[in-house]
Amino acid sequence: MFKRNFLLLSLTALATLTANAQTSWPTKPIRLIVPYPAGGPVDQLARTIAPKLGEALGQNIIIDNRAGASGTIGMDAAIKAEPDGYTFGFGVPGGITVLPHLQKLPYAVDSINYISLVARVPQVITVGPQVPVKTLQELIALAKKEPGKINYGSAGNATTPHLGAELFAQEAGIKMAHIPYKGAAPAVTALLGGEIQVLAADLPAVLQFTSRGVKILAVSGPRRAEALPSVPTTTELGLPAVYSESNYGIIAPTALPAVIQQKMRDALVAVLNTPSVKAQIATLGAVATSTTPDEYRKLMQQESIKWAAVIKKGQITLE
After folding, report:
1. CATH of the domain at 201
2. Quick one: which of 92, 161, 188, 311 could link to 316 by a disulfide (CB 3.0–4.6 Å)?
3. Of 244, 273, 293, which residue is a domain's last?
């Protein structure tokens, strides 16, 4: 009887300590794993929100760059981290909606614990300075006149720029030749140099190069970009199914306690609604966006279904 009572008291005490720890969270710095290199657009986005998020939570947010394997190394580290509330991850779309259809991943997508979106990054369809077109309709007409002779670049096989351009080609009924590069920067350089004629890219990757002749013909989606109010959308131009953007958010270890998850989300939403943070994110060519965990999850599920169809139809592989 004594042993049983002692065990019950011990379990009660442990439960009380755990509850108190969750209520007082956070009591030390929090690590945010970014699955891309320092200095890139995703890292810049994470570092934009980190200081204000740290202020809201009363602890520093430490950025931990874990690049490699198209973001899956960092994603894996975040998903499988100790669920104590001191490690979170920056969710990137490729590791959630694309790569599961192309390779075996070290984590199960169904086990991802979503907190909230942080930002939407519009994708745009661009052409190089040497291409004699000024509108998307003119590009489609040129591609139909010379099927397979127009080259489009990407940041690599099965990246969002690759899939976005493939989706555009499929919906427009045109044939273009794909040339993959090792990242967005060399793809933009190739566009400027005339090695490729077309590039579907996240807006931040090309926005600064409009002064050097890059022509942005359309925003891939239903909404015009704040940074490009005069550029039409693919929806306006009769291609509503051409909807491609990059969605970035905060994810957490699978078994994170609900009370900590709610505290993190509340702080994140407050930060994303701060005018100064919205303005900073806008300078990166992105749109500050918060969601519920369920909205974030459903969005990723919808994106996964869409890209699975594009991959199958385009016979896309990682090689």
Report:
1. 3.40.190.10
2. 311
3. 244
Is residue 10 situated within a structural domain?
no
- What's the gap between Cα 162 and its chain centre? 14
Percent pLDDT > 90 in the chain is 83
pLDDT for 70:
86
Q: Is 126 helix (H, G, I), strand (E, B) or coil?
A: strand
202-237 pLDDT per residue, tens: 998 899 999 999 999 999 999 999 889 999 999 999
C-alpha triplet 214, 159, 195: angle, nearest 5°:
40
In a domain? residue 186: yes
- Determine the Cα–Cα distance for residues 175 and 182; give it in Å rounded to an integer: 23
Closest CA to 259 of 106, 108, 83, 80: 83
User: How many CA atoms, within 13 angstroms, populate the side-chain half-sphere of residue 79?
Assistant: 21
Q: Would you say 102 and 197 are in contact if contact means Cβ atoms under 8 Å apart?
A: no
Q: Which of 219, 244, 269 is at the close of a domain?
A: 244
Q: How far apart are CA 263 and CA 22, in angstroms?
A: 10
Is the entire prediction scored with pTM above 0.85? Answer: yes
Q: Which residues of 90-115 are buried (b: 16+ CB within 10 A; e: fewer)?
A: bbbbbbbbbbbbbeebebebeebbbb
Does residue 156 sit in the same domain as residue 211?
yes
Residue 9: in which H helix or E strand, if any? helix 2-24
